[in-house]
Every structure is written in structure tokens, then in C-alpha cells.
User: Which sequence fits this backbone?
């Protein structure tokens, strides 16, 4: 494995930490606002489990 170092700018480091926080934070589901339009999508298959 290559062990060379690389440097991150402050902006890149901040962006990395923000992305890491977004990807590792639990999602909170809530009810949609029925005064606004929203879209419902499903990935359900033909066969149930």
C-alpha cells in the first residue's frame, strides 16, 4: 500500500467532516407536510418476504 501523505486544505477538511457527519447520522423519519406536494416511491418487489 502506498504510504505517501497528502494535504487537505481547511475547506476540504471541513467538507470531509460534514460529509462524514451526514453519512453517519441516523435518519429521522417524519410525516410529510400535506399542504405541500410530495412524491412516494417504493422499491418493493412482486414477491413478498
Assistant:
Amino acid at each position: 500500500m502506498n504510504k505517501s501523505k497528502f494535504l487537505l486544505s481547511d475547506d476540504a477538511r471541513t467538507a470531509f467532516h460534514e460529509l462524514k457527519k451526514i453519512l453517519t447520522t441516523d435518519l429521522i423519519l417524519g410525516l410529510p407536510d400535506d399542504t405541500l406536494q410530495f412524491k412516494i416511491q417504493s422499491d418493493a418487489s412482486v414477491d413478498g418476504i
